[in-house]
Amino acid sequence: MKTKIITLGIFGLTAAVISLYPVLDRPVIAKTDPIIVTPDTQPKIQLAILLDTSSSMNGLINQTRDQLWQMVNEFAKSKKDGKTPALEVAVYEYGNTGLSAENGFIRQVTPFTRELDQVSEALFALTTNGGDEYCGYVIQTAIRQL
């Protein structure tokens, strides 16, 4: 049980680092240059939540969602060079046999959006069912689609 929570935490942090790479890879601007925050220069965080909704998560789903939402809130409060980044969150569920086998039991619940109320509603509406979990496939799908 603890292993699954730790795995989900590591998975979430990995997704966050991958999504932050474009922000971290930008050239450094000298502190003396005035910075005007526009949609083009405002830092952006794109966070993809990939939630296992297989039956193995039955006893853990609520705790996992709570912890994932705490992580979203931490990103929402973050600062880069004194500016609040634009936070975009996408949600995928996988491992639920109620989903299409043709799509690898994966469903994009929400694309990247800044509407965190919509993300919260979608995340907390997910339920568990079945047990075909393909973690690598959902990671590949999310990267390709997002």
Can you write the helix and strand succession as a string?
A: HEHEEHH
Distance between the termini: 30 Å
- What is the helix tally? 4
Helix/strand/pairing class, anyone? alpha+beta
User: Whole-number average pLDDT?
Assistant: 79
Outline the structure in words.
It is a single chain. By secondary structure, the chain is an alpha+beta fold. Helices cover 41% and strands 18% of the residues. The chain has a 3-stranded mixed beta sheet, with helices on both faces. Strand 1 (44-52), helix 2 (61-76) and strand 2 (86-94) form a beta-alpha-beta unit. The model is unreliable at 23-35 (pLDDT under 50).
SSE topology:
Blueprint: H1 2-24, E1 44-52, H2 61-76, E2 86-94, E3 106-113, H3 116-125, H4 135-145
Parallel strand pairs: 1-2
Antiparallel strand pairs: 2-3
